[in-house]
Amino acid sequence: MSFNCGIVGLPNVGKSTLFNALTQTAAAQAANFPFCTIEPNVGKVAVPDERLDAIAKIGGSAKIIPAQLEFVDIAGLVKGASQGEGLGNQFLANIRETDAIIHVLRCFEDGDITHVENSIDPLRDAETIETELMLADLESIDRQLTNVARKAKSGDKDSKTQLDIMEKMKIALEAGDPAISVDLTEDERPLAKALCLLSAKPILYVCNVSEEDASTGNAWTQKVEAMAKEKGARSVSVSAAIESEIAQLDSPEDRAELLDSMGLNEPGLNKIIRAGYSLLTLRNYFTVGPKEARAWTISIGDKAPQAAGKIHSDFEKGFIRAETIAYDDYVNCNGEQGAKEAGKMRQEGKDYIVQDGDVILFRQNT
Fold first, then answer.
1. What's the burial of 54, exposed, middle or buried (CB within 10 Å: 0-12/13-18/19+)?
2. 52 neighbors 293 (Cβ within 8 angstroms)
3. Is 73 left (phi over 0), alpha (psi -120 to 50) or beta?
4. Fewer CB atoms near the end CB (10 Å): N or C, the chain?
5. 100-106: strand order across its sheet
6. Quick one: 69 exposed, middle or buried, by C-beta within 10 A (0-12, 13-18, 19+)?
């Protein structure tokens, strides 16, 4: 499983430049004019995890397969997008398919790059985009309400629950609050997710800063960070320009040297991935053998059969047990055999909640 993030923002904030850098491709045209991205571009990147390299070395694996993060670069939205302005609703529809939203905010001055509002104000820009998402959600709810209400009157239990959810969402949206702010029960969440509301998705604010501000941020990024905390969201600061330079360097040594010269410890991609994992409550477990060592992405709280299902649905159906070694134990005991001899391999059943970094061998009926 990879998680899927839609990259959104106003035109000319650096979305496509960031997408190109993060995916190390030139698939998206980065140009100094609005709407240069005509179709959503999709790119997958490997999730860096030093633990995977370590267990692969110990396990003598011939191949390493990291987890994947998927980015979808969506054309710049503008005020009125929910009513078809700019490139309109087709791009709002693209956002509905994503798990989370990466909202790129321009936090740098550059007289050579135009801004649709002719001034820099990331909080205003964030409000513009989020208002459009909420207006689109209101329209979506209004379209569905009559049909759902009719089914609810006929006695359909799920429709009654869905109607309650939609009415709560509508009240929040009309008050200017996003759908994600509505408190839901465990039973309500799957039905709410089926509504595919744009403002129900978790948001990661990415502040695109100048090279000079990459290591320290600036007054704008501080305001965005405060806004994100208030909304229960997250923010990171990256320089799309630096990420572009990094993407053009082939050797790890050259990349490290560039980062060091900029006062940075790591690429912005790493920060985005960590923030994204936290935002979506994700974690990795590992499988390892002579052929390959592989990272698998699951949600926090997933039990062993669900984790097995990420490999193949038959593994979940035929689950018997999970032979599990904690990452630290695997490393300290120099692999599976040493962990067995030290009593560090555990036989876990269907109710076991998989932990971050677990090294697992699943046993199933064949």
1. middle
2. yes
3. beta
4. C
5. 41-46, 68-73, 3-8, 100-106, 203-208, 234-238
6. buried
Q: Of the candidates 276, 284, 273, which has an alpha carbon nearest to the alpha carbon of residue 354?
A: 284
Q: Are 74 and 40 in contact (CB under 8 A)?
A: yes
Burial class (CB in 10 A: 0-12, 13-18, 19+), 32: exposed
**Please, what's the b/e burial string for 213-244 (b: 16 or more CB within 10 A of its CB; e: otherwise)?**
bbeebbebbebbbebbeebebbbbbbbbbbbb
Full pLDDT tens readout for the chain, 366 residues: 457 888 888 888 888 888 888 777 444 434 444 444 445 578 888 888 899 999 999 999 999 999 888 888 876 555 654 455 444 455 567 788 888 999 999 998 877 666 666 688 999 999 988 998 898 899 889 988 989 999 888 888 888 988 999 999 999 999 999 999 999 988 888 888 888 899 999 999 999 999 999 999 999 999 999 999 999 899 999 999 898 888 888 788 898 899 999 999 888 888 888 888 888 889 999 999 999 999 999 999 999 999 999 999 999 999 999 999 999 999 999 999 999 999 999 999 999 999 999 999 999 886
Answer for the pair 74, 37: CB distance below 8 angstroms, yes or no.
Answer: yes
Sign of the CA dihedral with 324 first, then 328, 333, and 334 last: positive
- Which amino acid appears at position 166 of this protein? M
Question: Is the sign of the CA dihedral 355, 359, 363, 366 positive or negative?
Answer: positive
SS3 state of residue 3:
strand
52 touches 64 (CB < 8 A): yes
Task: Please list the helix, strand and coil fractions of the chain in percent, rounded to the nearest 5, in that order.
Answer: 45, 20, 35
Place of tokens 């572009």: 244
pTM here is 0.82
